[in-house]
Structure formats: C-alpha cells, structure tokens
Amino acid sequence: MTIDVDYMKVADDAIKRIRNGAFLTVKAGRALNTMAIGWATFGYVWKHPVMMVTVRSIRHTFAIIDQAPDFTVTIPLTDMKKEIAYCGSKSGRDVDKFKACNLETAAAQKVSSPVIKTPGLYFECKIVYKSAMDPANLIAEYESLYPKKDFHTLYFGELQACYKTG
Length: 166
Hints:
The protein has 166 residues and is α+β, with helices and mostly antiparallel strands. It has one domain (2-165): Pnp Oxidase, Chain A (Roll). The protein has 4 helices and 10 strands; from the N terminus they run βαββββαβααββββ. The protein has helices spanning 7-19, 60-65, 81-89, 97-100, and strands spanning 2-4, 22-28, 31-37, 41-45, 48-56, 70-76, 105-106, 115-116, 120-132, 152-165. Strands 1, 2, 3, 4, 5, 6, 9 and 10 form an 8-stranded antiparallel β-sheet that branches. Strands 7-8 form a two-stranded antiparallel sheet. The longest helix is centred in the first third of the chain and has 13 residues, at 7-19. The relative contact order is 0.24.
C-alpha cells in the first residue's frame, strides 16, 4: 500500500534516517546504478520543494546522474545496513550491486529513475540544478572531509512525489 506524504512533515525523520544511510538511484538511458548516501537536505527553492543530494565526481553514479533527468532516494524502513554498506563501498563500474544485494527496483510514480523495492520512504526528484563545489568557497574546518580533494557536485531535485510503503 502506498501512502502519499507531505515531504516537510517527514523531513526531520528522513534526515535522521539518511544519516544512517539511504539509496540514491539514477537511470540515464540504459545505465542504472544505486549508491549509499548519508547526506541530503530539503528546502523550498525557486518557488518549489527541493531535495539536494551530493555525489563525488569519482563515483560511478556521477557519470549516470550527470546525464540523468532525475533521481530517487529510497529510505528503508527495515534493516538494510548490510546492503547500504555494500552499495556505499562497491562501485557499479565493477559489480552489479542490485544482484549482489538482491535489490529489486520498482517503477517510480513520476520520474524515470526507479526506487528500491522495500518498505520505505521515497522521494522522486527532477534535477533542476547542479553545481560542482568550488573548494575555494569551503570553510577550512570542512576541508578534512575531502582528504583526496574529491569534492561533491550538488544536485537539486524538485520533488515530484513523496510517499511511503510497507
């Protein structure tokens, strides 16, 4: 059963859960990948509700999301720590993470990138803006998060759907 939810009413809980890991899934053409994320934010920008996610340019997902029109975020409501850890430590260049973790996808309601089929909270987003981080604008105390200087690109997704299953 799918229940539509107001993203702002679940934003605090979603951010707490994302800190423990969630799946960012992207599809561009025939390329499909999912990766673990632990950072995201919600807001209201350009007169629209948005979710912002970050992807490092060295990640396989970057090559896909940079060509994709959209992305989804699946926040599992069951214990998927092993799957999240695997998807955060392995590259889709080298392994099929879906097969290795027995992850199934399901069609999203409003975007082309699928969601991970599990009881969860889902965010479907149309990419409306992306920007590579300029390290010259990063405060010194956060530089330690980038020892390899592999800075993120920020992807702002206009929320197209937010719902819960399970």
